[in-house]
Design goal:
Layout (H helix, E strand, L loop, with lengths): L2 H17 L4 H8 L3 H13 L3 E5 L13 E5 L1 H25 L3 H27 L7 H11 L4 E6 L4 E6 L5 H6 L2 H14 L3 E5 L8 E6 L29 E2 L11
Parallel strand pairs: 5-7
Antiparallel strand pairs: 1-2, 3-4, 4-6, 5-6
Helix pairs in contact: 1-3, 2-3, 4-5, 5-6, 5-8
Length: 258
Amino acid sequence: MTDEQSGTRQRVVRSIRDHGPSTAAELADRLGLTQAAVRRHLDALAADGLVEPGEKRVRGSRGRGRPAKAFALTDCGRDAFDQAYDELAVEALRWIERAAGGGEPGAAAVLAFARARAAGQAEQYRALLEGAEPGERVAALAEALSTQGFAAAAQAVKAPAGEQLCQHHCPVAHAAARYPQLCDAETEVFSALLGSHVQRLATIAHGADVCTTFVPRAAPGGTDGGTAPRSTAAQTGTGTAGAPKTTATARIAGRNPA
């Protein structure tokens, strides 16, 4: 494989990481390549176990014809970006857990660390959210998360009314799979920053293509509007002091409902 081919395949992988599962047509449009060229690179990446095809999710009624394939990163594909740092994170969290005595005390110590880490990140995000209008705060948070490598985006949903905060990449996915406290603390911070109940619907750490968090639209009276989508998870009730309750599904996460 030439350096040019290698560089193009890296661009394909990064585009999938940043935008989520993508068809050959979508990748060709983003990268300025022909669909035939993109398909050749996708076939090679699939053979190497870095991407895998799946059915493209279509909103509304589906037209005639065979649905386009959307390619998503595999675990190996994600490892290519963050494996070394993730292994270090897991080792550090394991040390914290054992130093606290294991069991419930160990789990509590990891959660305390996760909350402290999330609070530090929240201070960075808050600066970007302060100047945003109420209806633009989810988009502002997505922009802030993207600066930290989460490749995030916000999208509106009609029923129930609100927005979905989608993180197409997670730099600590392996650590979060072993220690879901990282996801719980992050969900609490989202709730505090947005001043709203939020519900984590899916996480990359537990098998989804995208980390998805539902943020209900605020009603005229300032309260959350509508009802959040049903989830198999329980209310945490242990959010950041003064923050609305959140629903975390870090332990039981399904596929991205979008």
